[in-house]
Amino acid sequence: MSKPMQSNFGWGGKRAGAGRKPAQPGETLRHYTAEDILGAINEIEEWKPLLQSENEKIKLTALIYLTDRRDGKARQPTTGPDGGAIQHEQFDLSRLSAEQLDQLEGLIESALVETPDTDQREEAER
After folding, report:
1. Are 59 and 50 in contact (CB under 8 A)?
2. % of the chain with per-residue pLDDT over 70
């Protein structure tokens, strides 16, 4: 069996001068926010050509965007895996013994995800 040929075309590996250049000392990069950019233009004048476009798709897209921002997006329906209603299991906790209820409570507490409002909810329950 012969050895695979190894070709060296100069590809791959570290090359001098390759890659992103580091920022120069004293050089500050300005990070612009949407507020900075929109504050520098006349927004209404920028929207007018889109809303007056002869291309109906551009007009519709601009209108949808603006009304979604003004009114909030419409609720999206939530469906189950088959496209129908979400199926819920019902439990009758009265069938469990006190020991089983304690075990269940421990499992729920160990799986609980902390959220910022958890502390407020716990204080309200006291």
Report:
1. yes
2. 75
Question: DSSP readout, 29-87?
Answer: -----HHHHHHTS-HHHHHHHHHT-S-HHHHHHHHHHHHHHHH-PPPPP---TTSSPPP
Q: Residue 17: how many CB atoms within 10 A of its CB?
A: 5
62 class by beta-carbon count within 10 Å (0-12 exposed, 13-18 middle, 19+ buried)? middle
Give per-residue pLDDT as tens, 65-106: 998 888 887 777 788 777 778 878 888 888 989 999 999 999
Across 63-73, b (16+ Cβ under 10 Å) vs e yields: eeeeeeeeeee
| Cα angle 48, 51, 54; round to 5 | 115
Q: 57 falls in which pLDDT band (50, 70, 90)?
A: very high
Look-up of token digits 């007018």: 48
